[in-house]
Structure formats: C-alpha cells, structure tokens
C-alpha cells in the first residue's frame, strides 16, 4: 500500500497517532497521544513537514487524501466509500487516474481521464492534484506508515457510538460543526481554543476532520477499523487502495 514494511500489527496502542487533512492549500494535522487524547495540532505546506513536526514518534498517520493511485480506472475504494454514505456520497470524489493528475492543465487532464475511464475530472479533484501527488511521492519513503481515511466515514462511525445515533449535518454548518465537536468529545478528544497556527489559519471543519481521521487511525491500530472495500488489504501492505474509518 505504501512501502514494504510489513503489515501494521493490531493490538495495544502505546504510541501517538496523527490525522491529516487539506486546509486552504496546506496540510493541517491533529495528534492524539497513546490514550487517545488531543496532543497538539500543526500546519505545514508538505506532508513531510507534518511528519517532521508531529509524526516522528507516531505509530500511524491517517490522511484524508487518496493513497494508491490507479492507472487504469476508478478505484474500488472510492466506490465502496460512496456506497457507505447515502445522501453524502459526493463527499468522496472519484480519484483521477495518475496520468490525469500529472497533467497541470484541467482541459488536458479531462481528455486523458475520458480516454482512460470514460468520464471527465472535476475542477475540485484536479485542484487537489498537488496534494495528492505530494503524498504519492512521499509515501514510499515515509518513516511512518500512512493510511487513507475519510473523515465523513469516521464521523458516521462516531455517530453510531452515541444514543440516539447522530448523523452529522453539513460540516460547514453551525449545527454540523457542533455535532462533530460533541462526537469527538464523547470519544475523549477535546480540542482546546488555542491550538496555534492551525487554529488561526485553518477552517474549523478541517481541524475537526483531521481529529476524526486521527480517531480512525487508532481504530486501524486496534484492528477494529472499517475498510472500504471490505476485502481490502491490511494497512501497511502492498495491494489495492483501501479507505479506512
């Protein structure tokens, strides 16, 4: 999946994890300590910068960006994740094929995508190409295992842990933000008011998404995470792309 370091061994969590999301052209990260408590946030222009800042001693880093690009068509992981989010499937964009991502011009990338997959590429997806390629380039040499996690799936799973079950509203709405804060707090993740540059320069939804990704990263370590597709490879091994939650 990333590099041949062997599978991530599930079991007792004794080291921190980090969750990462894209925010306004940068990366925002939230770190949870070995007990799952908030342990800091950071902002960096590259994924290597995030690892250097918060991830040196981490057991695992979860990232809300595609890991494992396809050369030939739509990723099964994206389709499976979409199917698990009724009413919000569009929050999981279909990852463009590698050749389309390597093309800086959107019109040219769209032509490539149509030739390979039969469908074009949205401006939103193409606009994320630099971040997707940043991870694609860094992953094989990362000193810490990286896994792909989608925060909407994470929050959906968090919502099933409370009674009554909460399906959070739009992450950009006031009610949606409040619901997400409450779900994270119920999981023991309390993000303070002053979290440095991440709190001043990032959208609140991106910080909350990074925290949810970190929560799911702990589930990956514990061996309890959902995976999409369900028969996807274990984290830290080579094979098809897998999204965890």
From TrEMBL:
Q: Its domain of life?
A: Bacteria
Protein name as it appears in the record:
DUF429 domain-containing protein
Q: Name the species this protein comes from.
A: Nakamurella alba
